[in-house]
Amino acid sequence: MLIDRLPISVLKSRLVPDRWDVVAIALVFAVLVYLGEAAHGLGQPLAGLEATPISLDPWKLIGYSARSALRMLIAMIASLVFTFTYATLAAKSRRAEVLLVPLLDILQSVPILGFISVTVVFFLSLTPGRIAGAEFAAIFAIFTSQAWNMAFSFYQSLRSVPDELDEVARGFRLGAWMRFWRLEVPFAMPPLIWNMMMSMSGGWFFVVASEAISVGNTTLTLPGIGSYIALAIEQRNLVAIGWAIGAMFVVILIYDQLLFRPLIASADWFTLEQEAGLMPSRSWVLTMLRRSRVLRLLRRAFAALLHRASRWGQNLQRLQKRPRKLVVRKVTPAWFDPVWYGGILLLTLAAIWKIAVFVHAGVTGAEIGHVLLLGLATLARVIILIAIASIVWVPIGVAIGLRPSVTRIVQPIAQFLAAFPANLFFPVVVSGIVAWRLSPNIWLSPLMILGTQWYILFNVIVGASSLAPDLRNVAENLHIRGWLWWSRIALPAIFPFYLTGAITASGGSWNAAIVAELATWGKERLVATGLGAYIAEATTAGDARRTVLGIVVMSLFVVLLNRLFWRPLYAQAERRFRMA
Amino acid sequence: MNAPLLLDVQKVRQAFHKPDGDELLVLDGVDLTLRAGEIVGLLGRSGSGKSTLLRVIAGLANPTGGTVNYLGQSVAGPAAGIAMVFQSFALFPWLTVFENVQIGLEALRVPATEIRRRALAAIDLIGLDGFESAYPRELSGGMRQRVGFARALVVHPNILLMDEPFSALDVLTAETLRNDFLDLWTAGQLPIQGVLLVTHNIEEAVLMCDRLLLFCAQPGRIVSEIPIDLPKPRQPLDPRFRAIIDRVYVEMTTRPGTDARPEGRVERYAGAGIGAMLTHVSSNLLAGLLEAVSTAPYNGHADLPAISADLRMEADELFPVAEALQMLRFAELAGGDIRLTEAGEQFAKGDTDERKRLFSLHLLKYVPLAAYIRRVLDERASHTAPKTRFFDELEDHMAEDAAEETLRTIISWGRYAEAFAYDDQSQSFSLENPT
Question: Which of A154, A264, B84, B403 could form a disulfide with A87 if both were Cys (CB 3.0 to 4.6 A apart)?
Fold first, then answer.
């Protein structure tokens, strides 16, 4: 009892397994085997892809979904590595910061889907003739959908380490390595976990979209759910699409139970006060991890290892530079700053020149104007769709959020739907449009918000459920009902939450436009007028200039919308609706 | 006074650079010594730079001028023999009690078995047995601060710095921890030789310290030193104890150069101009203290220690209110007493409208910043002015957060006096009051 949780006591624990151990061992090894099988084949030559084409056999889906899940996992690990390095550099170096932070902001606004064809060519050239190149390209696409917000969250946490904790760390002279693992990483964990969740939710969309990539005339299909569905579309096979949706459902459910829930539940561990979080912090997997003796042993061994590593790093550091000069900042020569900032300026100018020359060589001014107009068309779609989704989901979300028993059931479902890749449902809708000869300009639009509307719903639910009981009592006490209740109590109370959801939904919709505005069903092609369709067409045609032009214009729209509309609104909401 | 000298602080000066290149002086010419076996208290109002001085001594901040010598060595960066206890405990929420206590030793590259032995010893000494595996969030405030003590003591520092260690605790818990600490100290069981205690609790300071150094603000400097040679343990009801408390109050209401003459105080405020920092005190508190002093048993004249005990307000809560009243000429502070002026009596007896009228009158007459804002608004054709206009001007005189608080204060006072209006949405002052 005395020192129960200490790594030192690892050796003192009982070694007899209990029932949780059996479950745990079975699960852990099954996952290992499953992933191992999926990893096999990375080294195969590209020709092998054509030799074993995708099959619509539902049983094959088990293997395919494993491959898709593995890509997701690798991309997540890569995102974490990126987060720990990029964000740390940005937070610790003022010079790096001025460049890296705005870069993150822009990267977050770039529509990744338009990018894939460009990166495929690059990665294929790295590993000529191997599947690994195509795999890397797919994983890179998923990575780009996940990494930016994680890195930004980590950067913000590093910048806001509480003064006293910082002083303790400095007072006890923790080295940079030990400080990182003992102070900074744990402190940044709760928001990082939340962002990892959001990233994974968004990531499935790109897993599906990035597996069947066409570059010019060649189409690369990596084994996975995305390729399966692409083939189903080609063959107009609605049943196969049903199977794919089912498989995805199971994969996300497993991810949710094995990864999300334990992560969220463990986020509490890093905070001093237990706050009412956005998520239910219960997880049977975490309970299992905590109760199972074998896993506890493993966990302690791991903790001890980390502990050793942080001390070892500390020792190493001390050996290197001793005596250490503390507090005194590293002095760089006076010429360094002008050279550094001058270099950045030159680089920026060169980059702008490069883009301008590249695009201008094959594109006329009239076309640029045309693309801007297409951007306005897509903008109109995004605005109308967000408005419609808000009108539908805000009242429903409030109604749900005010009833705790309903919230408990609906909230996980809404989160699940947000994670579910909406592009799996596209063929179902598209086949309907084809069958009834509906106008693509109108009926393709809802696809853009199919996957992102749930962010509005679950943020509104959170907002409504966190409305102080006293405020509700006051409203009842004063007989405030009807429109007065909505306009003076409910809507202002959920407004900041709603905004968070709407911003996320709007950002996601732009990206979805690339796959939503141009859809195929067998030989039929449906095109809606818009920037998304323009980029998609340029990509399939292998027209790099128009792809770049489209991406630049879309990024511009996203950045401007964020800066000129969402940011002021959000700042106002934050100022106006807080008490202290 | 021939015990070995642990710490020698000479002419320490701390200034922060503002964006426009000017300096903001936080500490000016601070001299201080600490000898073995001493507990020295730093007493002063919040914002007087006591905590900054503690961080300079701990090596967490570099002074702009002056020297800090620890055992004859100049302190540049965190020194091995100086440990600190924080007001907010500053525990790592993700580490257990045991791990929190160990971390200082780990950074020192002490062998693992030795770390364990010493951590257990510290935990035992400070009364944390049985809590080793708990996480900070599972502990009460008192237990959390015990971890803070154990963590500081485990590295066997020569000097323990305490930054208001008991002020985040409730009265009873604070008393228990204080007594436990003093018992261990007097019994010589603590592995430390000297203590520097920052506090704003006068009774606590007199209870614990062998010497008190009084701080005054803007810039922070030591204005007087009060030796306390009562034997420990001390009894708060002991008349000699009360006499020392009274003396501290007298010293704190008498500023250098003012000689307790009313003109001196007038000069202090008139000379301060719009750059004087205002501490946020709500008009309810101002009215409350005026009422309390004006009624029996005080009838317009109260002894500060007495009214502090009566209202259950600590000195650092009471002083800002009393000083705001003094600035507004509703009261005078001198010799550890507060005395209402005629206007103060009138305010206390008046109804809401009368109070607002008086407050507005005094605000615009005696608080230069209020008068200035009003004048700017009157002069402008639109009768509005953005907040940033005054904020930038204030920043020439004080740090950013001080400027923020000063504006917050003037907005709230201006609103109460209906002297001007402020709209948070547009961040601007105006003369329009909704009527």
Answer: A154
CB contact residues (below 8 A), chain A span 6-35, against chain B: 6, 8
Mean pLDDT of A301-317: 62
Query: Cα(B76)–Cα(A170) distance, rounded to whole angstroms?
Result: 12
Percentage of chain B surpassing pLDDT 70?
94
CA A491 to chain centre: 28
Q: Residue A56 — left, alpha, or beta (φ > 0 → left; ψ -120 to 50 → alpha)? A: alpha
* Cross-strand partners of A155: none
pLDDT digits 0-9 by tens, B231-278: 888 888 888 988 898 888 888 877 544 443 343 343 344 335 777 788
Sign of torsion over alpha carbons B272, B273, B279, B285: positive
Q: Is this complex scored with an ipTM above 0.85?
A: no
Q: For chain A, what is the mean pLDDT?
A: 77
Q: Work out the percent of chain A whose per-residue pLDDT is above 90.
A: 8
Q: What pLDDT, on the 0 to 100 scale, is given for residue A306?
A: 63
- CB–CB of A326 and B104 under 8 A? no
Mean pLDDT within B412-427: 88
**pLDDT for res B427:** 86
Chain A residue numbers with beta carbons less than 8 Å from the beta carbon of B89 are: 164
**Residue A265 burial class via C-beta count within 10 angstroms: exposed 0-12, middle 13-18, buried 19 and up:** buried
Chain A, chain B: beta-carbon pairs less than 8 Å apart? 110
* Interface test with chain B among A4, A9, A164, A274, by most B beta carbons within 10 Å: A164
pLDDT of B394: 85
Instruction: Write the DSSP string, A355-396.
Output: HHHHHHHH--HHHHHHHHHHHHHHHHHHHHHHHHHHHHHHHH
pLDDT tens sequence across A149-208: 889 889 988 988 888 899 999 888 888 888 888 889 888 888 888 788 878 877 888 888
Q: Please list, residue by residue across A500-513, b when 16 or more beta carbons sit within 10 angstroms of its beta carbon and e when fewer do.
A: bbbbbbbbbbbbbb
Triad B350, B322, B266: Cα angle to 5°: 95
The one-letter amino acid at B195: V
Is A157 buried (19+), middle (13-18) or exposed (0-12) by CB count in 10 A?
buried
pLDDT value at A259 more than 60: yes
On whether any CB of chain B is under 8 Å from the CB of A328, the answer is yes
Interface touch B76/A327, C-beta < 8 Å: yes
Residue type, A64: Y
Contact assessment for residue B99 and residue B133, using Cβ atoms and an 8 Å cutoff: no
pLDDT band at A14 (very low <50, low <70, confident <90, very high): very low
Best mutation target among B56, B75, B98 (most A Cβ atoms within 10 Å) is B98
A133 to A51, A65, B246: CA distances (angstroms): 17, 20, 81
Rounded CA gap, B69 and B34, in Å?
10
d(CA B355, CA B343): 10
pTM above 0.80, yes or no: no
One DSSP character per residue, B172-198 reads HHHHHHHHHHHHHHHTT-SS-SEEEEE
Three-state DSSP state, B220? strand
pLDDT at B360: 92
The sign of the dihedral angle between the CA atoms of A544, A550, A552, A555 is negative
Q: At what angle do helices B171-186 and B141-153 cross, to 10 degrees?
A: 30
Torsion of CA B319, B321, B323, B327, to 10 degrees: 180
> Are the Cβ atoms of A272 and B91 closer than 8 angstroms?
yes
Shortest CB distance from A174 goes to which of B62, B98, B107?
Answer: B107
Q: Is A527 on the interface with B (CB under 8 A)?
A: no
Strand partners, B333: B338
Q: Which residue has the higher pLDDT, B341 or A31?
A: B341
Residues 82-121, chain A: which have Cβ within 8 Å of B? none
